[in-house]
Design a protein that fits this description.
- Helix content is 45%, strand content 15%.
- By secondary structure, it is of the alpha/beta class.
- It has one domain: Rossmann fold.
- The protein has a 6-stranded parallel β-sheet, sandwiched between helices.
- Strand 2, helix 3 and strand 3 (69-73) form a beta-alpha-beta unit.
- The N and C termini lie far apart (59 Å).
- The relative contact order is 0.15.
Amino acid sequence: MKRLELGIPVDATVIVSAGELNKNKNHEVIIKAIAKLKDPSLFYIVCGTGGLEGYLKELTRKLHVDEKVKFLGFRRDIKEIYWASDIFALPSFREGLSRSLMEAMSAGLPCVVSKIRGNLDLIQNGKGGYLCEPGDTEGFARAIDKLIGDANAELRCRMGQHNLDVIKRFDVENVKKIMLELYKAIIYEGA
C-alpha cells in the first residue's frame, strides 16, 4: 500500500499537493493551516522540487508539523499518490488551467484551491471542494477542517464524484469531438 510505503498511517487524512516548490505555488499556506488545525491524524504530502524546499522544511520544524508533512520530491507515481490521498490542495497565487488540479480531479479527490483564474474554471465552491483567497491561512484551515476525519468521508466522496463528472468535459476525446463539430460548422457555414 502506498501510504505504508510513504510512512503514513492507513487511517490518516492525507492532503496532497504537486508542483514546483516556489513562492507562486504557496505551499506555505497549507503548512500553516495544518499547524493551526492540530489534528493528529492529518498529513500533508508535497510532491515536487524547487528553490523553497529548504525554507518549507524549516517552516515545518518551526511550526512543529515536520512529522506530518512529507516532502517527496519529483515523483513518477503521482497517480498512485493521488489515489492514496483524501484531499488535493492548490494554494497558488496564479495558475492557468492547472494540470495537477485536473489530474487530482480525475483521481476523484475533493480540492481545496485558491480562488484564482483557472481554478475557478474547474472547481465549484462547495461542490467539488472549496475556493479560498490565496494568502488566507485561516480560510484554507477552515476549508480543510470541513473535509478531514471519518465524519466527513461521505462529503469527500461526493465532492470527488462531482469532480470526476466535471473533468470529463476536459477529456481529450471529448475536446476533439467539440473541435471537430466547430470546424464542421465553420466549413459548412462558409460553403
